[in-house]
Amino acid sequence: MNEERKPSAEWPLMQEMGITDREIARHQAFLEFGDEDIQELMSINELAQKYADPIIEDFYKHLLSFEEARAFFPNPELIERVKRAQKAYFRRLTQGEYDQAYIEDRLKIGAVHERIGLPVKLYLGMYTFYLRAVAARLFEAYRDAPERALEAYLSLMKVVFLDIGLAIDTYIYRREQLIRQQQEAMRELPTPVLQVRDRLLILPIVGVLESHRARQLTEQLLNSISATRAKVAILDITGVPIVDSKVANHLLQTVSAARLMGTTVILTGLSPSIAQALVVLGMDLSPVKTTVDLQSGLEEAERLLGYKLIPVGEGMAQM
Amino acid sequence: MKAPILKIGPYLIASLQAELTDTDLLELQDALVEQVGRFRSRGVILDVTTLDVMDSFATRTLRNIAQAVGLRGADAVIAGIRPEVALAMVQLGLDLRLSCVRTTLDLEEALAILDHESKGSGRRG
Predict the structure, then answer these.
(1) Average pLDDT per run of 10 along chain B, which is 125 residues long?
(2) Taking a C-beta distance cutoff of 8 angstroms, is the pair B47, B18 a contact?
(3) Quick one: A161 and A301 in the same domain?
(4) Is the pTM of this model over 0.80?
(5) From B108's CA, which of A47, A69, A105, B123 has a CA 20 to 30 Å away?
(6) Residues of chain B whose C-beta is under 8 A from some C-beta in A?
(7) What is the torsional sign of CA A178, A184, A187, A191?
(8) What ipTM goes with this model?
């Protein structure tokens, strides 16, 4: 089997995103971007070097007339720097070098834009502006041979779409990375097991309860029961955003396991929407004691444990 | 080996060991159901503290014992299911078989519950 060459450390973004040479080749093949296109692009290079500057100047005039775009350019030096970079990019489009360094740069552009929160519509808008401007100049220059202008234009489109694809990939990659990190953080949210009275535990569950965490929670509860000899445990799910059939099953299992150890579990904090959802799902939670909020859960627990809460004043009066 | 059955006042206590075979369990069942009548016991405690596994046969037998002694007028309590055993049982779906049987943390708790109940029924009766 042909071993796919790993992207080297020289191109950190390619490596991070797992974009291999083969992947790029496939991307180019899908766009039908080949050697003829490179030839076409190089044939208009001389012209492209000339129009890069005026197109960029026009484009920035256009861009900065929109308030939402101006917000990204707080000072004139920045505008100048970005213009320079963009001119260099436009010149590079027709220079026939679409190697790893080129790809890495495209990814970098996507990453930078994602980081500053540049809307995709502005990024794409730049390309349409550019393509329209180039088309006008190409057909002007090849007035006698419009088919040549069209050929070159189509090749330019391909490479532009390759670049857009790469930049958007970076956008998506970064967002997915963020989602993963947040999920990770949520998974690691610990659930404390709190002893509030002799033989009474409270577990406030906050965040998404997925399989791994549910298992951890059950283990924690059972070990705490064994350590504290708890008779009643309150699971408060006020902070659990979604309770689907999977989560409900996890909860049922936890309750059942605790019961095997002789502990009654009271489930508190079922919001109206969660209660309705469980009914629709057909989940039978009848083996579980449920109460509307933590307060009533506590009252129920105290009743089970034989406690009675008496306000100090009343207690004094009775004495 | 045979599981020992201890008699303490109105209760019978059977301590289950890991070495018990299926046959031993069935013998224990017969002995308990018989002795509940002989000693006119009010409660039976099945102590499983030392078990680190509970298979489907053991679970079913425990439930059968509980139901049979129940028919002969004694309350059955399973005491001392360990955390890891409880978790495994739930994952295997064995917990449902015990849904009609009382379970407690340990022997002490089981005795407290039985005492509490017989006091209650005494007052009622």
Answers:
(1) 89 92 93 94 95 91 94 94 93 87 94 85 43
(2) no
(3) no
(4) no
(5) B123
(6) 78-79, 81-87, 89-91, 95-96, 98-99, 102-106, 109
(7) negative
(8) 0.84
